[in-house]
Design brief:
This protein has a single domain, classed as NAD(P)-binding Rossmann-like Domain (Rossmann fold, 3-Layer(aba) Sandwich). It contains eight helices and eleven strands. α3 packs parallel to α4. The model has no long low-confidence stretch (mean pLDDT 97). Bound molecules: NADP nicotinamide-adenine-dinucleotide phosphate.
């Protein structure tokens, strides 16, 4: 990395899990960080004193506008946008699908990603080389019982990522979709509405990925030479051959 050019990375959902680990990994690589989530105190702790920690709710346009305005004022451009904010809610079959769970997943995972990308594109176009990194999932191309609300939203992330790749063709803006399998973060606690025993059971008898494993992949993708676009990275724990096929030790 040229010493006089400090790239700017924006990370959404930086208060926890993969987003927090990405802030740390990119910070170590010399990126200047602008990070957001709803739990601002946690973002502040993750970012430390050198970066910009801001409140961000990707379901609210006013929050996104205020966030991007601050980034513009402080940095004037964005080199890397990591659309990481996301969640799963519930594990109910379609026949019992809860509207409020589906709406929340779609508001955050799909519309949030659309709105952040749309708002950040003018600043990505001001960078020497822009890069959009979207957190998809193996749920973006696989399905499992009870997972339709989440898998449908991640299938949408996959479609949006591939569409962006077409629409930005000819511009110096890369698009990478990161597609993890099982990663132990707060993800399952959120999915089960705070039920920590249900969340723990997801990882029982298996060594899941950790957030730093995914941050590693993001760091790899963004540090390739600018002509190299890593379109997708699929990463799973060795024990997980499919969303629903996990070899567990008793
Ligand atoms: P996590 O630990 O629960 O972190 C989720 C992050 O998203 C939090 O920082 C949360 O911050 C933020 N967030 C949620 N709603 C938001 C909103 N409305 N506005 C702004 N930020 C919001 O889960 P994670 O595993 O790191 O998940 C990160 C991404 O990876 C998600 O897109 C998820 O779908 C994807 N993923 C996870 C796994 C897995 O197994 N863990 C697998 C594949 C893909 P606040 O609550 O503070 O706002």
């Amino acid at each position: 990395m040229a010493s006089n050019y400090k790239p700017i990375a924006v990370v959404t959902g930086a208060s926890s899990g993969i987003g927090a680990a990405t802030v740390v990994a990119l910070g170590r690589l010399g990126y200047r960080i602008a990070a957001g989530a709803r739990r601002l105190e946690r973002v502040r702790r993750v970012v430390g004193s050198s970066g910009l920690a801001l409140p961000l709710d990707v379901t609210r346009l006013d929050s996104i506008d205020a966030f991007v305005a601050e980034v513009k004022k402080k940095f004037g451009r964005i080199d890397v946008l990591v659309n990481n904010a996301g969640l799963a809610r519930g594990l109910t079959p379609v026949a019992e699908g809860r509207d409020e769970d589906w709406i929340e997943m779609w508001e955050v995972n799909v519309l949030g990603l659309l709105r952040m990308t749309r708002a950040c594109l003018p600043l990505l176009r001001k960078a020497r080389h822009g890069h959009i990194v979207n957190l998809g999932s193996i749920a973006g191309f696989e399905t499992y019982k009870g997972g339709a609300g989440y898998t449908a939203s991640k299938h949408a992330v996959h479609a949006i990522s591939r569409t962006l790749r077409l629409e930005l063709n000819g511009e110096p803006i890369r698009v990478t979709e990161i597609e993890p399998g099982m990663v132990e973060t707060e993800f399952s606690v959120v999915r089960f509405h705070g039920d920590r025993d249900a969340a723990k059971a997801v990882y029982k008898g298996v060594k899941p990925l950790v957030a730093a494993d995914i941050a590693d992949c993001i760091a790899f993708a963004v540090t390739r030479p600018p002509h190299v676009d890593i379109d997708e990275i699929v990463i799973r724990p060795i024990a997980q051959a499919a969303t629903w096929l996990v070899a567990r030790k008793p």
